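Troubleshooting log. The previous structure file for this entry was overwritten by mistake, so regenerating from the original sequence record. Sequence copied from the archived sheet and checked twice against the printout by T.R.
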Amino acid sequence: MHGLLNLIPQTPKKILMAPLIPWQAKLRVLAELWQPVLGGEPTVAKWVAHRFGKALLPYVDAVYTGTYAGDYDRLTIDSVMPGLRALEKEHGSVLKGALQRLRAKRQENSAKKPFVMPAMTSFPEGMTRLPARLAENLALGRDLLLDTAVTAVHSAGSGWQVETDKGMLQASQVVFALPINAALRLLAALDPAMPEKSVPEAQLATVVLGFADTVKLPPGFGFLTPESEQRFALGALFSSNMFPGRAPAGHIVLEVLIGGRRHPERVELDDRTLTRKAFEDVRQILGIAMEPAYSTVLRPWGGIPQLERNYPGLLAWRRRFLAAHPGLHICGFGWEGIGLNDMMKQATRVAEELLSPDRREDVAEIKGVYF
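Regenerated output below.
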């Protein structure tokens, strides 16, 4: 904020004592207890300003820049934080509902557990190890078909036909484990009344910068920049802090995030311009004097799904659609979240449904926010 890095504490008590916002604004946060429930499908920015006050908006902006590369004036609270929204509607106040849940948990388990930050986890050779391990026990050509594009799925009596560019497959159970827009393209043929044909996406480019280890990174996972700072970069990840060994001995590496929902035009810039502008931001914010020893630009083929207006309606449609089509299952990137943890929870639930056909409704969870 204001050109300087600000350390955000991770517990409510420490956040309350930190000099991040004036005391008047902190009292306004407590006034959330008496704010009326906001109707309709408000954006994250409108909802936060209504419930907690405008002083929190730059920090909330940074949160959704870091998670969705999104615009909190477009993302809706019902879409990205359904658990918080449910607390507001059920108890009339998020704080009141959170306190009641906390009391209930303490009654269930009298032993007080210390607050523990979630761990950042990866593999020495990167996240590609996860699908590689899952595939190790599958027979190629029998259990696993590679380079086989699915073009359509059709109902076939008590089962399903999966049409591919290599021929037709028969199945009693079909799982659409796909990014949301890829799934919607296939699902549209099964239900022309599907309420949304696609979900907006935010495109990102990542500028990887390597330096000699005489450059010292601040502690933490990285930094995020609210839109009000008018920076070129959305933020940076301190990869060497999170995963030692990602850079050669004697070096450190960080990744600078560019583009997002607000600035898709920046992703279209050439590699040299992206690298120059990204380094200029990092140099100013982190006080780095030397030039990078290494740089490259990564451009993912897909974007990050944006959970904006009408997204809850799409989830409601999915529930009705699955109830009416036994044997079909839907999960993947952009359904109920975009994090790997979200996708693992969805995949586990689908696996349980395959083993036990009785579908179960899940209560919207309250997702943690970490800086």
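The longest helix spans residues 271-286. Archived copy saved in two places this time.
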